[in-house]
Amino acid sequence: MVLEELISHQNTINKVIDSLVPQIEQGCQLIKDTLSRGNKILIAGNGGSAADAQHIAAEFTGRFEVEREALPAIALTVDTSALTAISNDYGFERVYSRQILAYAKPGDIFIAISTSGNSKNIIEALKTAKEQNCISIGLSGRDGGLMNDLCDLNIVVPDKRTARIQEMHILIGHIFCKSVDEFFS
Ligand SMILES: O=C(CO)[C@@H](O)[C@H](O)[C@H](O)[C@H](O)COP(=O)(O)O
Ligand SMILES: [Zn+2]
């Protein structure tokens, strides 16, 4: 089983190498352009993808591999008072869209992470991000789901398994960070 899982991960990376390099490069460029204009990054996801959202945001506000200026990135997954109040008062579907209304300025980037591409709170957040004139980058999987029609750039990991898709998302997130390190250092 262990070897099979490792080989399955390797097969997914090979599919990403074969099909997603231009889209990942486009994501790097959008993020560098956004940060160098003085705009910020907002990130959200559910479950393992919530952990990815805060992991990636912290690489920007703190640092990744080299010394460079602090960069503005906010994970919408971390404030338990906001998460519980918004869910309780407006419904879980609006837990991220309400925070986008609070934080987003035109030209900011919203990175939406969903392996199915269909989580309702992520879809609502993408609709609000569009209304706020934000740029949206999707990290999704399977067939890209509803995110295909709502993201400026939807990076769809060509796999069916949530675990494999999540593993590629954090790799792509780290590639975004590497490209930002090179640009800002
Ligand atoms: O990490 C995992 C599974 O590996 C789970 O916590 C997973 O993220 C949750 O089931 C999410 O609710 C799935 O949502 P999504 O990726 O379809 O948007
Ligand atoms: Zn997981």
UniProtKB/TrEMBL annotation:
Originating gene: gmhA
For this UniProt record, give its keywords in alphabetical order, as a comma-separated list: Carbohydrate metabolism, Cytoplasm, Isomerase, Metal-binding, Zinc
Quote the protein name from its UniProt record.
Phosphoheptose isomerase
Pathway of this protein? Carbohydrate biosynthesis; D-glycero-D-manno-heptose 7-phosphate biosynthesis; D-glycero-alpha-D-manno-heptose 7-phosphate and D-glycero-beta-D-manno-heptose 7-phosphate from sedoheptulose 7-phosphate: step 1/1
Q: Which residues bind Zn(2+)?
A: H55, E59, Q166, H174
Localization: Cytoplasm
Give the superkingdom in one word. Bacteria
Care to name a GO molecular-function term for this sequence? isomerase activity
